[in-house]
């Protein structure tokens, strides 16, 4: 299964829309692009494998595998990228600003449901990240 994340970069954060087979799933929020620096930047565009993961803190969530020069990049619930993320990605049901959203847990459950169906079918799940304009910042 392939998921496509279409990004828009802003100075204060990164907003994206996530699709499967052309159908919208949810929005995603991330930190701004800062040259892939650990804990302060979103991850580079590219194609990544997603794996299921569980922790006491986030419960069921996803891990983004093989991010260059980074480790333990997760997709987990968060509604404010600068306050709750350290390089990870967060699904949200609605965008309310740059790097800010609402109803992240609801969006996470929707994404997990789709991914777990693929995992149960023994399918790999990949995340393809592309920008709409290949520029790292847009002004609001």
Structural description of this entry:
The chain has 140 residues and is an alpha+beta fold. It has a single domain (2-131), classed as L,D-transpeptidase catalytic domain-like (Beta Barrel). The protein has two helices and ten strands; from the N terminus they run ββββββαβββαβ. It has helices spanning 81-84, 104-120, and strands at residues 2-10, 13-20, 23-30, 46-55, 59-65, 73-75, 90-92, 94-97, 100-102, 125-131.
Describe what is shown at a glance:
The chain is built from 2 helices and 10 strands. With 140 residues, it is of the alpha+beta class. It has a single domain (2-131), classed as L,D-transpeptidase catalytic domain-like, CATH 2.40.440.
Question: Which key terms come to mind for this protein?
Answer:
15% helix; 140 residues; disordered C terminus; single chain; two-stranded antiparallel ribbon; 10 strands; globular; 2 helices; alpha+beta; L,D-transpeptidase catalytic domain-like; 8-stranded mixed β-sheet
């Amino acid at each position: 299964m392939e998921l496509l994340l279409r990004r828009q970069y802003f100075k204060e954060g990164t907003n994206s829309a996530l699709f499967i087979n052309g159908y919208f799933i949810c929005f995603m929020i991330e930190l701004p692009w800062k040259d892939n620096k650990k804990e302060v930047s979103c991850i580079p565009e590219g194609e990544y494998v997603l794996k299921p993961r569980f922790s006491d803190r986030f419960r069921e969530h996803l891990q983004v595998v093989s991010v260059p020069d980074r480790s333990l990049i997760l997709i987990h619930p968060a509604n404010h990228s600068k306050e709750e993320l350290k390089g990870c990605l967060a699904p949200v049901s609605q965008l309310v600003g740059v790097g800010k959203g609402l109803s992240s847990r609801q969006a996470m459950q929707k994404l997990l449901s789709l991914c777990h169906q693929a995992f149960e079918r023994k399918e790999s799940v990949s995340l393809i990240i592309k920008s709409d304009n290949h520029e790292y910042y847009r002004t609001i």
